[in-house]
From TrEMBL:
<feature type="domain" description="AB hydrolase-1">
    <location>
        <begin position="15"/>
        <end position="252"/>
    </location>
</feature>
<dbReference type="GO" id="GO:0016787">
    <property type="term" value="F:hydrolase activity"/>
</dbReference>
<dbReference type="Pfam" id="PF12697">
    <property type="entry name" value="Abhydrolase_6"/>
</dbReference>
<dbReference type="InterPro" id="IPR029058">
    <property type="entry name" value="AB_hydrolase_fold"/>
</dbReference>
<dbReference type="InterPro" id="IPR000073">
    <property type="entry name" value="AB_hydrolase_1"/>
</dbReference>
<keyword id="KW-0378">Hydrolase</keyword>
<protein>
    <submittedName>
        <fullName>Hydrolase</fullName>
    </submittedName>
</protein>
Amino acid sequence: MDDVVYDRAGRGEPLVLIHGIGHRRQAWAPVFPLLTPHRDVIAVDLPGFGESPEPSGGYGIEPALVMFKQLFADLGLDRPHVAGNSLGGLLSLALGQAGLVRSVTASSPAGLWNRRQKLYAIAALRAHRSLAQRTPPHVVRRIAATAAGRRALTGMIVGRPELQTPDAVVADARALATAPGFEPTAAQSRGDFRFTGPVTGVPVTVAWAERDRILARPRVADLRKVAPHGAFRLLPGCGHVPMNDDPELVARVLLDGSR
């Protein structure tokens, strides 16, 4: 199996955390210590992102399901709980549909879009990556040193940029700029790709960020088609990547969803 890099700590039932496109496992750092007293937490770098090498089996949902099935076996996890953000939310829903996990918590999951929304989301993320690639690291660090600079750099992604640390902003920008998996993963959305589910047989929570500027919040009726028996939560004041905006709220949603 590809060498997937992960952080693991805590006690209790296993909970696997999956980040979004262009991000890394450290996206979960603000909530990680809030979860470990209650769960055996495993935060992974998806293949081609963070410190994980590119996948030998290619990109897409099916290769990801194969990878996670093998990872779960290697780590001795029997149908763990899983939670994901954005791309990670989509993969979490797919894992639930495949019957590989015991619960799913998806925050602002990708794939629940119409064509116009998809084109906007991919274009916005590519523009964010282009900015990270064109801005020298020393300039990013100088801009990130102020709250106003952090808003300029990350305001499309998070709801409360001033809460981020300059070091995290710099590291996230580098990860986004250099991730070899970004373009192959974005290319998977070509055509009319949508995740329609249904995800049944496991508890599902779909949480949507109130200030999500990347993905439009679906109607509850559409969410019901994807997760007929799901629970739906709004994350007030949070942006597309909500973990740093309100760690206590996100941790509570994750713990409630993984009971």
